[in-house]
Amino acid sequence: MKRLLPLLLAAVSASAYAQKFDGLAETPQMGWNSWNSFACDINEKLIRDTADSMVKLGLKDAGYQYVNIDDCWHGARDANGFIQADPQRFPSGTKALADYVHSKGLKLGIYSDVGATTCGGRPGSRGHEYQDAKTYAAWGIDYVKYDWCDSKGLSAVGAYTTMRDAIQAAGRPMLFSMCEWGDNKPWEWAKDIGHSWRTTGDIYPCWDCELSHDSFARYGVMRILDRQTGLRKYSGPGHWNDMDMLEVGNGMTEDEDRAHFALWAMLASPLILGNDLRSMPESTRRILTNKDVIAISQDKLGIQAWKFLDEGKLQYWARPMANGEWAVLVLNRGEQAATLNYDWKAHEINDDVSKRTLDARTAVYKWRDAWSGKAGDTGAKLEAKLAPHSALVLRLTAAASDGQAGRAAGQAAAGAAGAAGAAGQAVALDGGACSVTPAPRQRDYPWMSRERWQQMFNEDVAVADKGGVDLLFVGDSITEGWNQEIFTRSFGAWKTANFGIGGDHTGNVLWRLQNGHADKLHPKLVVLTIGVNNFGFCDATPEQAFSGVKLVVAQLRKLYPDTRILLNAILPYGQSPQSPQRQKVVALNRLVAGLNDGQHVFYQDYGLHFLQSNGDMSAEVMGDFLHPTAKGYQIWADAMLPDVRKLME
């Protein structure tokens, strides 16, 4: 017992501070799962062929990234209790399968259960949670779906918390998908446990039906939709209401498939495909890769839609989106075609979750039909004929009112050069250093005027237009900060470029990446500096600052999916470890460190090179660090250079 006591204390301590991995499922996860089409009839060839199909058919490019093996992959446990894959179905082993899926730029998911047996009668994880999580990490698993069969006598909170802690202890970021069927209202308690949780029993490929079995039921699309009432306030980035996997392509009509897909996107449910991708017709592929609908699903604001108007068979749903946009869906649930004649000006659409209002009486919104591409605006009534079991999906962007137009003209004049450099891109009007909405700089600061900021942006555009670079710095200025001699000596072996200027915050950096032709660069390595600007202008909390960092990382991953990102945490610590600024920095660094996945994103705190052994910053280097001198930049460059060389290999 004495020997066990330290281990027990360590386990209790780890559990007390355990948390799910941050930085995953910031938008609803997208991928594929084997269950809906294949149930237990699975093997490694199916998984490999599906991964190939995801790439070949453009699903990966559309945003789908997880290839998830559901139930029945299991073999027996070995003599030490470690789970093995079925040697007949998966003769190469799960590690080799994960390597293959990763080689395609995709991620592999796996399935287990809180009970001693899974729903398919295979070995569950009860009593083996830490062993299984460790095994999954060693195999290279990226996603864990955790079911609720054989759960007799278990506390849902306890069972799912145990596996969350086990995944954290295993040390590999794995998205945790809770398949608890909504029996214990997980939306009320699972925000810090899972990245998503099922809200209902299993789905079935029908429009409005319910199949009752001895101990459970399966539900059609409308039955699941109706069970979402009151749940939207619990959903958001990193914690989603899961309406179960998609049945698109599994036997419903094309209209039903489109409506099903659009509803799941509107309600921010994970988009996990359940059809056989190897034999998917082109009509189904077009639905599943529709860019406008996927953009609604993946909107970074992460607010779930709600039904704002119910006319019986016709229902109206709205979703507020980032950048002041909206998505509106009109659903025809009925068995007959319906005529739509909606007067935008007759309704003020108020959202009590986001506190946003869509008021077409005081502003005009332009809209685009996600399926047909047809465009219009809210100045006229919305007229259409909706087929039965179909949905009209619109994306709305505010057009300037008279007062807005005047303000926009003044701001556009200040940023005319930038607008010209980013032809066709709309300039956001709510700029400033504090926003997480992509926006250009709108204010002068003592160390840099708005005009100089604009000039440097134009210089960045000119660099980007020349094409690819080896090494891209984001978030700190080369031309207005780095000592050029030191920079050239340290990094001159590579072709370099810079996006991000001293004094910028998340919104400015995002705007520069989106509007500065950054997609032309294709660097091997991006160095993203986590600077004082993450705090300085808004007195942001570490959590708010981290949200901004994640947005920039997500944008970089979208721009450069095969590029490595080095998170360069060099922030002013202050002389004392007890200083409020130092403590905020340490808290932010803990959060940012969690983005390190060892494959695409790497984290290093180079500020440590300025500290003494007792944690204080010596007076000798304080000035060099806080107001970088040549000496300070040399310390910084010397600290970074070995990692840059390694990651550039």
Automatic annotation (TrEMBL):
Keyword Disulfide bond in record: yes
Enzyme class: hydrolase
Annotated signal sequence range: 1-18
Entry's Gene Ontology molecular function annotations: alpha-galactosidase activity; hydrolase activity, acting on ester bonds
InterPro entries in alphabetical order: Aldolase_TIM, GH, Glyco_hydro_27, Glyco_hydro_27/36_CS, Glyco_hydro_b, Melibiase_C, SGNH_hydro, SGNH_hydro_sf
Domain Alpha galactosidase C-terminal: start-end pairs: 311-396
Keywords: Disulfide bond, Glycosidase, Hydrolase, Signal
Family from the record: Belongs to the glycosyl hydrolase 27 family.
Family matches, as PANTHER family: ALPHA-GALACTOSIDASE MEL1, ALPHA-GALACTOSIDASE/ALPHA-N-ACETYLGALACTOSAMINIDASE
Protein name as annotated: Alpha-galactosidase
Organism: Duganella guangzhouensis
